[in-house]
Amino acid sequence: MAKWKYDVTLTAKNDLGSDEKILEIVIGDKLSLTPPMGWNSWNCWGLSVSQDKVYDAAKSFVDKGLADHGWTNINIDDGWEIFGKSDAPKRSRKGEILTNEKFPDMKKLGYDIHALGLKFGIYSSPGPLTCGGYTASYKHEYQDARTFAKWGIDYLKYDLCSYRNFMNNQNSVEELKPPYILMNKALRSIDRDIVYSICEYGNGKVWEWGESVGGNLWRTTRDIWDNWDRMYEIGFGQVENAKYAGPGHWNDPDMLVVGWVGWGPNLHQSELTPDEQYTHVSLWSMLSAPLLLGNDLTKLDTFTLNLITNDEVIAIDQDKLGKQATPVIKTDDIQVWKKELSDGNIAIGIFNVSKENLDYKLELKKLGVNGEVTLRDLWRQTDIGKFNNMFTTRIPSHGVKLLKVFLK
Ligand code: GLA
Question: 68: CA distance to ligand 1 center in Å?
């Protein structure tokens, strides 16, 4: 529960005029009142991640202005630990988990990331090994939580991986909960706020119980790839879980696959077309999904930079009401999703999921919108005009029209 709430009015002025916004500061036990925004090493570097690469990503958040748009977390995924099959000791004599040679000084990395004004995330697994075969937290949960705190960790992704070998039924809630409860207790026992990201691929309908085991977010699906079919299957499949999302507890349909990605040392440009990338970012924002970039931030072209720094689109994701969008109209070609916003207005995404460019006539009444409303194109940041029920628009194949509907 929120213990204290402060409204701070921010005013910006220049020759063209001035504008005001209220920044709400909430202090209490709940973490992640809006979906986490940040970067995770997996979709670009995979197991080839290193301390330098992580720091470069952090530096880019600041140097390229991303931090000014809300991008905050810098999260290391798998590959920082000692490889399970290596002969080297995996833990110190006191049992403290060791980093591999690619991470010479984790505490320094934490310090450096914090010095940039950013937050630091890490990855482990409740089993003996991570998915990549590296050392994990099994039987060292409390100790690892303490080590993470010592390194200045603010965010933990806890990935089921090899723990599955201890389970009889991969979808059994009774079997899935205990390892997550254990790490939650460990995290709560230390004097540091650590966002808890559950990763077990949506097994046992994790959205129904993720919050009860302390999760601030939980992966709802298997891993994403940078192609339309996988992004479509994952993104447009987020329907049943909608009512479980809210401030402090989010459905996580996996990381963004825009920009240069590759899951290893060799990167390529996302195979999603530009329109598919607009759809990807729009849909994730409509879903109040965690926005975790998975690309090499040192290689940002103008298109990708614009795609991830549009404040009006990000505001849909970060809306403090935290309501996940739901589909209202669904045909083979078009899907229209609606999201309620904290200011009493709504956002709608009209997605053309067909292989053709289409002209589409939207009847606003079908979205529960009556009377004259103003529509704003969020990608273009312009008002389109006032409409009374019928709105016609052309949408490219696999593209989107992302609108804010001003009801008042
Ligand atoms: C699993 C997770 C991925 C990533 C890898 C790391 O596949 O779903 O997001 O963390 O493990 O090995």
Answer: 28
Residue at token pair 């699906």: 221
Last residue of one domain, picked from the residues 282, 317, 352: 317
Pocket test for ligand 1, best of 39, 164, 199 (most atoms within 8 A of CB): 199
pTM over 0.70: yes
119 and 253 belong to one structural domain: yes
Phi, psi of 243 (to 5 degrees): -70, -10
Angle at 114 between CA 112 and CA 117, to 5 degrees: 120
- Could you read off the pLDDT of 194-240 as tens digits, one per residue? 999 999 999 999 999 999 999 999 999 999 999 999 999 999 999 99
Q: Are 109 and 121 in contact (CB under 8 A)?
A: no
Active site members: 159, 223
Per-residue pLDDT tens for 121-166? 999 999 999 999 999 999 999 999 999 999 999 999 999 999 999 9
Q: Give distance in angstroms: CA of 178 to centre of ligand 1.
A: 20
**Ligand 1 lined by 42 (C-beta under 6 Å):** yes
Same domain (yes/no): 162, 216: yes
Does residue 2 form part of some domain?
no
Among residues 161, 249, 239, the alpha carbon closest in space to that of 210 is found at: 249
CATH number, domain at 376? 2.60.40.1180
How far, in Å, are 21, 70, 72 from residue 9 at the CA level? 6, 18, 22
4-61 pLDDT, tens digit each: 999 999 999 999 999 999 999 999 999 999 999 999 999 999 999 999 999 999 999 9
